[in-house]
Design a protein that fits this description.
The complex is a heterodimer.
Chain A lengths: L9 H20 L4 H27 L6 H23 L9 H30 L4 H21 L1 H4 L5 E2 L15 H25 L1 H11 L1 H6 L4 H27 L1 E2 L6 H14 L4 H24 L4 H7 L2 H17 L3 H21 L1
Antiparallel strand pairs in A: 1-2
Helix pairs in contact in A: 1-7, 2-7, 2-10, 2-11, 2-12, 3-4, 3-10, 4-10, 7-8, 7-10, 8-10, 11-12, 11-14, 11-15, 12-14, 12-15
Chain B lengths: L1 H22 L7 H4 L9 E8 L6 H4 L1 H15 L7 E8 L4 H14 L4 E3 L4 H13 L4 E4 L15 E3 L4 H15 L5 E6 L2 H14 L6 E5 L7 H9 L4 E5 L2 H13 L5 E4 L6 H8 L4 H4 L4 E4 L7 H13 L7 H19 L6 H9 L23 E8 L2 E11 L4 E4 L15
Parallel strand pairs in B: 1-2, 1-3, 3-4, 4-5, 6-7, 6-8, 8-9, 9-10
Antiparallel strand pairs in B: 10-11, 11-12, 12-13
Helix pairs in contact in B: 4-13, 4-14, 5-6, 7-8, 10-11
Classes of the chains: A mainly alpha, B alpha/beta.
């Protein structure tokens, strides 16, 4: 990687990298048809959550099974803030389609998502810093299971089981002739994902990131060396939560709704599958993992439809086969490549660079 | 060393993509669609739907799309409509709005369906309303009683199928006032649009202070003991239910456990006798459901339509259990076939919508269809049904509901013609 612009190093290099990847992503949307762009937006949303989870588990060793709830928090934050702006803008007739309001609405929604998921992440992180291993997993698991009950109790604000609707985001008039709706949504998703990923990379290589590794390696030793272990864990959890919240906000923007049914326990575990399959701690791995999680059910569906199975069998397979494949995939990956896709790649690279010296000797 | 290889790969990929980006543009060209309507060929018409085949709502509703498909197979065996067979693409959304978004996009963008038919559920279908409107896809006969589908100004291509919840609530409220005069009436409703709109209808008939108690439940909580206990304590004698089938059974079963047996009046969404017996068991179900009142707007029991649908169910649906969902699914199929026949020799999305708005569709309901240019509701009235010795049938009382009033009308069943295949 050092070959391109070697004079740029450190933080500016990471920012530039994030920007370049975002532009690359946006360029990709031009070659995809609307449905693929929609899938790309969903992958980007899942990536935000998976990346947050992956960094959290990989860097600090805190296992969260509740990232779906953090995504939901982001979704609700987005829906509430965007609807609020929409309500204010609706004062005059015909203002809701205005380009300015649309941008303000999306930005307000994203800010709302960051605040809500950040606060929830902070609370969870404060509790989580005192818990270890299975106890933290249990706490976060309880959060996901409690989500429907929470939305039912706060029905007035969160809309119960039916959830909330988010305003419809059309393509801004200036871009109408250039991009399709799904492409526009993919752009927003890619930008949100690159902001989240850049933030996580910066965090990982910062002083705090180093401390996180120290805490993960040996908490007692880290504490003895003067690392504030509790605070470090909380910071990691908040960053991870905000990233997941951004993912939830993107999902809410694209699907125009957020409801507890969409963030079930099964979905939360799917995020863990994506992080593990991709490789814990790796952002590239998180991207691979989220793409697998989004595209695999669709591929399986396409195959079962193409096979022309009996209607009865097809109905039974529909939705269930994907779950089975994910389970099998998880088992196979953990057995074959314990480090996930990213780990397997790194191992191959290491093996290659080591081989020449071995033969020379 | 390996870093260099990676960076070269990235650079090559970036260049390739940049070139491709200049060459292609992903905005669909509008001219392409003008030639032939999407989903229509010389021999087929493809329509799609989103249904809960898995997940929490599957138990109550997964058989509907199979019934619709069986009816289309029957029509196709008879030569189809205007020489075209109807292909029905059913996608599972697990009653999850996020999945609905995905599968409906697949239907529209991948499978290029002519129309979306009978998408099931209020939260699920709400999430695709704008998408379908944006893509000008006819969004026909939504399987939900929300009043949100009847907004011709905002969503000119969306049409409802179910009698809306306000109508059902008003009809049951009026029935309680007429036939169960002076008894303490209560409502148990789902905590979403279903319950809210149903309650609105009941209050239309009984007045805002006409109810002794109102309770709500949440689908995610499979326990209604608290609500049932509260209604029992409040002295309710008549309970009107805005509940899905599973919760109707749960409410009746819980009340029986508490030794409480009020009169139950249920919305059609949760009032299907065979389904309820399935939940309550063959032994106790018929006893508990004796005298159970519900609304309906489709043929029931001994009717020529039901006879035909039973035959179709045996011939094309592998003899699956025959219940209200089967009749519902096939009636949806019939109404679509009728609309398609009326849309002309070479149907387009516009001509299909025009055909429905013409108000000439007849359907097979017990009250006339309300479709018109300014009205996208299917049924503005419902009949009252009762269970008597294991048979659920109309009692003859039918109510028509408009914005302010509920009035008793004569039922107007539609005679079966041409073996149940709409003629062009």
């Amino acid at each position: 990687m050092n070959r391109v612009l070697p004079q740029v190093t450190g933080t500016p290099r990471i920012l530039l990298g994030g920007l370049a990847l975002a532009f690359l992503g946006i360029a990709v949307t031009f070659v995809l048809d609307p449905y693929r762009n929609y899938q790309l937006a969903i992958v980007a949303a899942y990536f935000c959550a998976t990346a947050g989870l992956s960094v959290l588990v990989g860097l600090t060793g805190q296992l969260s099974l509740g990232h779906a709830a953090l995504m939901a928090a982001g979704g609700y934050g987005y829906a509430l803030a965007a609807s609020l702006v929409d309500g204010m803008a609706d004062g005059g007739p015909g203002t809701s389609g205005d380009e300015g309001t649309s941008v303000v609405r999306v930005l307000a929604g994203l800010a709302g998502a960051v605040v809500v998921s950040g606060v929830l992440g902070l609370l969870l992180g404060l509790a989580g810093a005192r818990l270890r291993g299975p106890y933290l997993a249990g706490l976060t698991l309880a959060l996901v299971i409690a989500l429907p009950a929470v939305t039912a109790v706060l029905r007035g604000v969160l809309g119960g089981d039916q959830g909330l609707r988010a305003p419809y985001e059309d393509v801004p008039p200036a871009l109408e002739r250039l991009v399709a709706l799904e492409q526009w949504h993919a752009w927003i998703a890619i930008l949100a994902a690159s902001v989240a990923a850049t933030g996580l990379v910066l965090l990982r290589r910062s002083r705090a990131g180093l401390q996180m590794r120290a805490v993960h390696g040996d908490e007692t030793a880290a504490r003895l060396s003067g690392v504030p272990a509790g605070r470090v864990k909380v910071v990691a959890f908040v960053a991870s939560a905000v990233s997941a919240g951004l993912g939830g906000a993107v999902l809410c923007l694209v699907t125009q709704s957020v409801s507890p049914g969409a963030y079930s326990l099964a979905f939360s575990l799917l995020l863990v599958v994506a992080a593990v399959v991709g490789g814990l701690g790796s952002l590239g791995g998180a991207a691979v993992g989220s793409a697998v999680v989004v595209l695999l059910p669709w591929l399986i569906e396409s195959v079962t439809t193409a096979l022309d199975l009996p209607a009865d069998l097809q109905q039974r397979l529909s939705g269930n086969l994907a779950v089975l494949v994910f389970g099998a995939l998880l088992v196979v990956v953990t057995l074959a490549w314990p480090g996930g896709a990213a780990g397997a790649l790194a191992a191959r690279r290491a093996a290659r660079s080591q081989q020449p010296p071995l033969t020379e000797r | 060393m390996s870093h260099h290889r990676t960076s070269r790969c990235v650079a090559a990929a970036a260049t390739a993509l940049a070139v491709a980006a200049l060459a292609a543009c992903s905005v669909p060209e509008p001219e392409a669609e003008a030639a032939a309507a999407p989903g229509v060929t010389d021999t087929t018409v493809t329509v799609g739907t989103h249904q809960p085949l898995t997940g929490p709502a599957a138990a109550g509703y997964s058989s509907i799309s199979a019934a619709t498909k069986a009816y289309f197979d029957y029509v196709n065996d008879k030569g189809g409509i205007n020489g075209r067979t109807i292909e029905y693409v059913v996608k599972d959304d697990g009653y999850n709005p996020a999945t609905t978004q995905t599968v409906v996009r697949e239907l529209v963008q991948e499978d290029e369906v002519f129309a979306v038919l009978n998408g099931l559920g209020t939260p699920t279908h709400s999430s695709v309303l704008d998408f379908l409107h944006q893509n000008e896809v006819p969004d026909l006969f939504v399987a939900s009683g929300s009043t949100g589908w009847n907004e011709p100004e905002t969503y000119p291509n969306t049409f409802a199928f179910n009698a809306d919840y306000v109508t059902e609530g008003a009809a049951l409220g009026q029935y309680a006032a007429d036939e169960l005069t002076g008894k303490a009436a209560c409502v148990l409703g789902q905590d979403d649009d279903f319950g809210t709109e149903f309650l609105e209808g009941v209050e239309l008939a009984l007045g805002a202070d006409g109810l002794t108690d109102v309770q709500t439940y949440s689908v995610s909580n499979q326990d209604v003991t608290a609500q049932i206990g509260a209604m029992k304590a409040a002295g309710c004698e008549v309970v009107m239910l805005a509940t899905v089938n599973g919760f109707t059974a749960l409410a009746i079963g819980t009340a029986a456990q508490l030794g409480w047996f009020p009169r139950w009046l249920s919305s059609s969404s949760g009032g299907d006798y065979p389904t309820l017996v399935g939940f309550l068991g063959e032994e106790n179900g018929p006893k508990l459901l004796q005298g159970f009142v519900s609304t309906n707007y489709l043929p029931m029991a001994d009717d020529e339509w039901v006879e035909l649908f039973r035959q179709i169910n045996d011939d094309h649906n592998g003899g699956a259990p025959f219940d209200g969902n089967t009749i519902y699914g096939m009636s949806v199929g019939y109404l679509f076939a009728e609309a398609l026949a009326m849309a002309g020799e070479d149907p387009t999305r516009e001509s299909l919508v025009e055909a429905i708005e013409s108000g000439k569709l007849v359907g097979n309901g017990v009250v006339p269809l309300a479709f018109g240019p300014d009205d996208h509701a299917a049924f503005r009235g419902v009949g009252i049904t009762m269970v008597n010795e294991g048979v659920q049938d109309f009692v003859g009382t039918t109510y028509s509901v408009d914005a302010e009033t509920v009035e008793a009308v004569e039922p107007q069943p539609v005679p079966l013609e041409n073996e149940g295949v709409p003629a062009p």
